[in-house]
Amino acid sequence: MKRLLSAAFIGTALEWYDYFLYGTAAALVFNRLFFPELDPAVGTIASFITFAVGFVARPVGAAVFGHVGDRYGRRTALIITVVLMGVSTGCIGLLPGYGTLGVWAPALLAALRFLQGVSVGGEWSGAMLLTLEHTPREKHGSYSAVPQLGSPVGTLLSSGAFAVVGMLPDGAFYSWGWRIPFLFAFVLLLVALYLRLRIEESPVFRAMMADAEQNGPPPAPLIEAFRRAWGRILIGIAAAFLGIGGFFLLTTFIISYGTEQLGVDKSVMLNATLVGAAVEIVVLVVCGRIANRAGPWKVCVVGGVVSVLAAFPSFWLVDTGRTPLVVLGVALGIGAISIPYAPIGAVVSGMFPENVRYSAVAMSYNLAGVLSGFVPLVAASLLGLSGGRSWSAALLLIFIAACTAVGSYLAGPQLRRRLGHDPSKRHETSKAIA
Predict the structure, then answer these.
(1) Residue 425 located in a structural domain
(2) DSSP notation for 144-212
(3) Contact 339/287 with Cβ under 8 angstroms?
(4) pLDDT tens sequence across 290-309
(5) Which of 18, 42, 188, 298 has the fewest beta carbons under 10 Å from its own?
(6) How many whole angstroms separate alpha carbon 362 and alpha carbon 256?
């Protein structure tokens, strides 16, 4: 169990490190190196469009790796995803800029971002299911927070890497310094692959394979998931929206907003996201434990409401431009949206039957990811329409948080229907799964 949890956490952290690097670079670097012919504001929007490409690719990865995970094993899918992510991220660090390749430079950048998205499309769901299908159901609130810790740790690693290379002179930073964090992905790939190869397959999947040997292979899992559970997939999309979309609003977008609109130094904005990631780690651990007692879906509802209340104060603090208040504003916003992020894996996975679970969970989470990928772009566009006023971005955060609160509330009856009301029955089910 310790080996499983360590591999789920560390492997996911390395995967998110690779993925989040792109978001930071999209806010600081890519508009200058790959879209130099455009106006700076338009170049930022173009950079965020390539950022969104990774999210458009995520349902593709969900379909591919959902099928692999439901038919050939959760472990097999996770090994493939980490290799794909490490190679595509490292190649971004090798990619020449617009001055060398012309229009091929942004085209290749978008293609590599697409491959990142395909990888992430199967990563989160596989890591979450492998964790929860090994552990007792009454502990799913806290155990579901373990893979989630990979997100803030990945943020700390990626933002920390950019904070270090950001201390270089601008000429060196924009010439070669920004490439170092991407090239380091090749090293991290070896670590992640070693960990993934040592993971044992899920007992739930082994039971599914034993049943398939007697009764024949089940129908195509993705088609079966949409046929039997399309309503629950929609609920899962809404419930997961804040943890992804809100996060990128308060990291990727806010870095760009602070540096481009407010004139805050990039090191201040990067350090603010580092503090926010540290706050997120604490919130995930605490709220995961609370979810064991109160119920995961209830924690997600509360987190959505808290995020609605924190939206305007977070942006007001950032608008001051004063370093301590900027850091406080980013930390407040990230801390609020981390409340529902802690147990969301238990909420989404608990709604679906085992034989289509990987496909259904992956599609729910990654369709939410598609919407989330456009959040920085939508926020930048709204900012332009509002004359650079942050209230437009705060309203967007409120909308996203309300979606998660409503989706999590609707997930409650689905979870009760699947688990039943009898605590002893839940315990027996937990022992059977474990």
Answers:
(1) no
(2) THHHHTHHHHHHHHHHHHHHHHTTS-HHHIIIIITHHHHHTHHHHHHHHHHHHHTPPPPHHHHHHHHHH
(3) yes
(4) 998 888 999 999 999 999 99
(5) 42
(6) 29
